Amino acid sequence: MSSSPPIRIVLADDERMVRTALRAILRAEPGIDVVGEAATGAEAVSVTRETRPDVVLMDVRMPEIDGIRATEQILATRIDPVPRIVVVTTFENDSYVYDALRAGAAGFLLKRTDADTLVRSVRLVAHSDTLLFPSAVRTLAEKHARTHAAPPPWVARLTGREGEVLRLMAAGLTNAEIARRLQVGPATVKTHVAAVLAKTGARDRTQAVIVAYEAGVVGAHRGGC
After folding, report:
1. What is the pTM of this model?
2. Which residues form the Response regulatory domain (predicted)?
């Protein structure tokens, strides 16, 4: 029986001690391989292009270009497969974190995160179809979302069922959980999720949730998700 290929990780942080600690934790875990490191945002872009990792752990504040710009540049290169970028930060309510999620980061981790949570989060973001820490993402979106004066055009293009799926995505449900909630098949949910991403122009679920908050499709004022 063949095993799954290891999760390939790039570490991007300007502090050597942080990279050393992350490397030690991750390399001790089966099925995880640290394939590159970077000390600046520009290096993060270059190393990611060269190594094609599954996940990039990206410090949000770095020299040359910050983690937000580095995230944008990595995703703009259309690397195949597209890496999942997780920003690493000291403060979870930092507007930099929100901007990184808005730019396409799949989630965030705090620098004080314990080793077990770090490993679980890496595995989750590499293989799962749910949000990383959905309640924290919702809190950030509620606090920082720059709402549109009028709903963007994609809102009108969503079907009623697609709107339901988007709100359940924002609540942190997986495709299987959405399928059970709506009493439909997983393949149907997968089709709806793909339609939501296409219509919102989002790269992944996290970015779809962010733009949904900005458009007022989800939020506390809607009884929300």
Report:
1. 0.85
2. 8-126
